[in-house]
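[agent] plan:
  1. take the single chain provided in the ticket
  2. run structure prediction with default settings
  3. attach structure tokens to the ticket
  4. add a short note for the reviewer (M.T.)
[agent] executing step 1
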Amino acid sequence: MGYTAQLLKPYPGAELIPEEPVFDPGKTPGDVYRRLLGCFEKLREIAAASGEEMLELEVDVALIDVAEPSDVYDVASLIVAELAHLHAQLPGGEPPREIYYVGRKFPADVYQRVGILEQQLVQLDKYVGSQQQVSGE
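[agent] step 2 finished; step 3 output follows
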């Protein structure tokens, strides 16, 4: 979320860190994995609209519901790496603020936090898309 907040900074009116979505208990790693995959796809759209290339991710949809926490971690790490790449393209972009270890979290906690990332990416996609329309690309 820190990288995405930095990517949103140049856009007046952008909500850098949106409100947390409602907490929804009982989520599984598969639910978090599915939400992260949606974020990854939105990030690919943003990167394409920005003229940047990203890694491709092929997922066996039959295995999403049985995803393990390590699978969630892998996709989250990939998203952070891709966001760091986009952030590195900003001239003079400030680094995101330092993070701290918040302790162990349940899938429902992570699902809620990914909801913030999701909202940020929707905003960023809107801003990048409107920039493309203005520039005529």
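[agent] step 4 note for reviewer: The chain has one domain: 5-9+27-131.
[agent] ticket updated
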